[in-house]
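DM from R.C. (forwarded with permission)

"hey, sorry to bug you on a friday — could you get me a structure for this? deadline for the figure draft is monday and I only need the backbone to look sensible"
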Amino acid sequence: MKILLLEDNLRLNSTITKRLREKGFEVDSFSDGEEANSAIDNGYGCYVLDINVPSLNGIELLKNIREYYPKTPVIIISSSIELEAIKDSYFFGCNDYIKKPFYIDELEIKIEKLCNAITDTISFGDNYIFDAKSSILEHDNKRERLSKKERLLLELFLSDLGKVVSYDKIQSIVWEGNFASLDSIRSLIRRVRKKIPESYIETVVDIGYLFNPDKK
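My reply, with the result:
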């Protein structure tokens, strides 16, 4: 999963980035709000935002994120203990708030909980095992390495298990914010369907897809 981190304390920024990368996450880190704002469409599955940063504060960035990504988890971090800052964070749609100083483990737990992060192997359907770190899909002792887009798509489906995943969300996460035609998305779906039972991925007409490997 790809995470956007906005934190202007360079030491803390580096510490968080290093820890999350060690856990297998992709992290784009920023110390300036405007620079982070220009990157919000790059396919993030989670945003971690400090409030008091240069150029554009975390609350304003949160507002911009919510205009386009109303459901993507956002965690606000701040040294502020002002009730108004906390109220603003939740009013504009943050999912959780963590006050400095904090343990990195605490932030990591929040990310894994809120973002449904896949950081290890996961089993699904009829004895399929997916290792997100190595991009390996295993079934009946056969192992196959997925391409990057195939891995990102399967990660997305597993994190949104039982939910309809829209074309827009697939474009944002799998194509990392770049344009993807409907034909390109359908072509990727066809490739993944060849590697798992076709019935696992249901087409929801004009909306997207539903991944339901347990449907009988």
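R.C.: lifesaver. Helices lie at 10-22, 33-37, 58-68, 83-91, 104-114, 148-159, 167-174, 182-193.
me: no worries. The CA atoms of residues 157 and 211 lie 6 Å apart.
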